[in-house]
Write a structure and sequence with these properties.
alpha/beta; Spore Coat Polysaccharide Biosynthesis Protein SpsA, Chain A; nucleotidyltransferase; UDP-N-acetylglucosamine diphosphorylase activity; Nucleotide-diphossugar_trans; transferase; UDP-N-acetylglucosamine diphosphorylase
Length: 481
């Protein structure tokens, strides 16, 4: 390989103000040069410059907005639906959703890029066992809910499962599925793809080096999903998630995170709500009951949809309550969304460049002027990320589905025995919800007995009539009726 970097590459970097990325070329081995050249040729420096400029502009606009009075309002009542408040309509919506599934119009998308680092595991978070009697992983619980959903929908229903991984989690996630025979799903119905990355930048927008032969990169946030949906599924491939959805005839997509053991994968009621209302996007929420709970809320800011972070809400408004005593801004975001394929394929690309990435100033390991590695003591650079809800301001009509927290949301965020959002609370909440199912079916669970209901037996409490009158005196797993 030449002692000089490729002229075309050097010119492109210089034009973008990033010529420093080749500063150590002469010192690199042939293998290091090849690696750096491949990384630089894949780098869209023009996009990086545009993302940086928009992020700086967005940060300035947000600061200006914070100092001004602007309207924050709860979702309008005609945009919000609660199944608990309208059970008969919920049943109709559920059937609409099941019909769409039976017709092959539904896919599900899992955000699974995270590792279980806080849980004391280097494996993908979806591999984690929260300690259920069955010791099923989060991945297995979701896979079996898909299988049950296909049975409930009837016919030859197949629900493709798109799993967004990250660089560190893709290979171990695919291996985990292979080792477990895809938990009974068809391998061709499980599609893995990868969340994108962006270079880390200096405070003035220069791409940082992790070493003389490698760019420093970081994941582009869960909002990177929108670009990732159009990217090749793997290096050298021509198909993408979008092309897969279109070729399969999938019209609707349900997206959610990996860390919620209670998630109703492909929830037919939620799907039915969004389909009946003809919206491009929908969101599930739970009721925020404490003003101090540090959670973003779905709301309208100056008439546009969005998720307003806890820190952005004035204290008086955060504590404001309606006549019935509930918080006015109470639609807590749980990262659980509906989209039409048309919206993802056509509308998002049209406005994507208008979305401002969020800036996180961090201490980023890099190299000094001599190429020596160093770790800074203070923030020296920026990581840029989008949030999955950053599309909401561009959506005209959004369906908001309010669901009971105890039935549908128990996030796994913290280390074991932390006392909140940890493996023990996830386990407790799932077993408590399934105990409710059993008791509503007429079974009796004695105090101290822990009874787990396999997702293959019941998706959300249905189909348990045969257990009426049965008494569970000891812990067990109901995996057949």
């Amino acid at each position: 390989m030449s002692e000089q970097p490729p002229a075309e590459l050097a010119a492109r970097l210089a034009a973008a103000g990033q010529a420093h990325l080749l500063a150590f070329w002469a010192q690199l081995s042939a293998a290091e040069r090849a690696r750096l050249q491949a990384q630089l040729e894949a780098l869209d420096v023009e996009r990086v410059s545009a993302v940086y400029a928009k992020a700086i502009e967005g940060e300035a606009s947000a600061a200006a907005l914070a100092s001004q009075r602007h309207s924050l309002a709860a979702p309008p009542s005609d945009a919000t639906f609660s199944a608990a408040a309208a059970p008969s309509e919920a049943a109709e919506l559920r059937q609409i959703g099941l019909d769409a599934i039976q017709q092959g119009h539904v896919g599900v998308l899992l955000l699974a890029g995270g590792q279980g680092t806080r849980l004391g595991s280097s494996a993908p978070k979806g591999c984690y066992d929260i300690g259920l009697p069955s010791h099923k992983s989060l991945f297995q619980l979701q896979a079996e809910r898909i299988r049950r959903l296909e049975v409930l929908a009837g016919g030859a229903a197949r629900v493709p499962w798109y799993i967004m991984t990250s660089g560190p989690t893709r290979a171990p996630t695919q291996r985990f599925f292979e080792e477990h025979a895809y938990f009974g799903l068809r391998a061709e119905d499980v599609v893995f793809f990868e969340q994108g990355t962006l270079p880390c930048l200096t405070m003035d927008g220069k791409v940082m080096l992790a070493s003389p032969s490698e760019i420093a990169t970081a994941p582009d946030g869960n909002g990177g999903i929108y670009t990732a949906l159009r990217a090749p599924l793997s290096r050298g491939a021509s198909d993408s998630v979008i092309s897969s959805l279109q070729s399969r005839g999938v019209r609707y997509l349900h997206a959610f995170g990996v860390d919620n053991c209670l998630v109703r994968v492909g929830d037919p009621t939620f799907l039915g709500l969004c389909i009946r209302r003809g919206v491009q996007a929908g969101v599930k929420t739970v009721v925020k009951t404490q003003a101090s709970e540090s959670v973003g809320v779905v709301a309208q800011r100056d008439g546009k949809w969005g998720v307003i972070e806890y820190s952005e809400i004035p204290a008086a408004l955060a504590e404001a309550r309606d006549a019935d005593g509930q918080l006015t801004l109470r639609a807590a975001n749980i990262v659980n969304h509906f989209y039409t394929t048309g919206f993802l394929a056509e509308a998002v690309p049209a406005f994507e460049r208008e979305m401002a990435f969020h800036i996180a100033r961090k201490k980023i390991p890099t190299v000094d002027a001599a190429g020596k590695a160093y770790k800074p003591d203070t923030p020296n650079g920026m990581k840029l990320e989008l949030f999955i809800f950053d599309v909401f301001p561009f959506v005209e009509a959004l369906a908001v589905h309010e669901v009971p927290r105890e039935q549908e949301f128990s996030p796994l965020k913290n280390a074991p025995h932390t006392g909140a959002d940890d493996p023990q609370t996830s386990r407790r909440d799932l077993l408590r919800e399934q105990r409710r199912w059993l008791e509503e079916a007429g079974a009796r669970v004695t105090e101290g007995a822990e009874v787990e209901v396999s997702p293959l037996v019941s998706y959300a409490g249905e189909g348990l009539e045969k257990l009426k009158g049965r008494e569970f005196n000891e812990s067990t797993v109901v995996d057949s009726l």
